[in-house]
Amino acid sequence: MTYQLFRVGALWHYRRSIDGKRVQRSTRETDRQRAEQVAERALREAKLWARGGREIPTLRELITQWIIIHEASASRAHVKVVETLGRLHLHGLGDTPIDKLTTDRVELARVRHLETHAPVSANQWLKVLRLLCNWAVRRGVIPAVPFRVKALKIQKKPRATLPASLVQDWLTIIDKRKGSREGVRTAIRLMLGLGLRESETISARWEWLDVERHVYTPGRTKGREAVPLPVPDWLFSYLLERRQAAGLMLAKSNGKPYTPGFTRSAMLEANRAVGAPHITAHRLRGTFATQLSRMGVPVQDIQRVLRHKNLTTTAAYLEIDMTTVIAGQRNMAEQIGFGLHVQPAGAPVANNAPQTQQ
User: In what order do the strands lie in the sheet with 21-29?
Assistant: First the structure.
């Protein structure tokens, strides 16, 4: 089993033959060397599946191959989502060849998922299933995703943000928490002051802090971007007191990095202590975005700081500021003549009633 590389327009394509069946796909690359890497990787995968006795893999086999290919390059959270689907949520689809994942079969599997999970979880399950099948399409394993299933409509709920009036008391509880670790306190401040994801605090390094410019550039992010983030003075002073020449900003006593979810228990305890809503690592990032919006920062700039590819993703992080809405409603009422004018104490009340003639 070999492949041939050829150009169609500006893009390189590859052609290979499996058991007498010719497969032709675009590498989506204009550089020949990168195109060869894409074609060779696709060929290795095809040979691996062929050794299993079938050209079309089952869903379980597809998940295994996806993890093998992406484990070194994708984020740990991304790999974990796919791994969890394969381990816990196949719902009878595991041994089904992926070209046989019909709409009926997928819908039935989703019904089983809904027996023990919320609709939002079912939509995430469907999203991961589509991701896997689209990956198989790009690799030339199947011509198209074999099912058409729409996501469920979900009633959106208001999401928690940490009120500005509670921040200081909330951080005090974090700092005084029995057995609390220095890494937890620093991570929470990085999320609150820079909008970092928890995973980005785990990999944070002192080399990425530019002391001269007061900026921090995350070097390992979900979207592979490197955006310099301005560090506010309060956070810069906190970090400067703990600054080291190099190495992880957060580390356990044995020098190893923390594991995902290491800030959760401290946050939940602080929430209970000060009466804050359900603040988690993700909602702390949402608090950061919402507070920037309330301070008048344009949403395009917030998108850049959060490092989102799509503006609609950023907009979903911003909660409505009812204080601003109320002020706007009052101004509107004044303009259209419905404003309530409160008379000063002791002032005579104007009598606008028509006078009766004697």
Answer: 3-8, 11-18, 21-29
Lowest-pLDDT choice from 214-218, 233-237, 308-312: 308-312
Give the 3-state secondary structure of residue 348.
Answer: coil
**Burial class of residue 279 (count of CB atoms within 10 Å of its CB; 0-12, 13-18, 19+):** buried
| Mean pLDDT to the nearest integer, 282-296 | 92
The SS3 call for residue 8 is strand
pLDDT at 165: 93
The H or E element containing residue 5 is strand 3-8
Interacting residues of 260 by C-beta distance below 8 A, sequence separation 6+: 76, 77, 198, 199, 202
Q: Taking 90 as the threshold, does the pLDDT of residue 321 lie above it?
A: no
Beta strands (DSSP E) in 128-212 are 209-210
Alpha carbon of residue 65 to chain centroid:
24
Span 205-222, pLDDT tens digits: 999 999 999 999 999 887
Global pTM value: 0.66
- DSSP structure class, residue 17: E
Give the CA dihedral 334, 336, 342, 347, nearest 10 degrees: 110
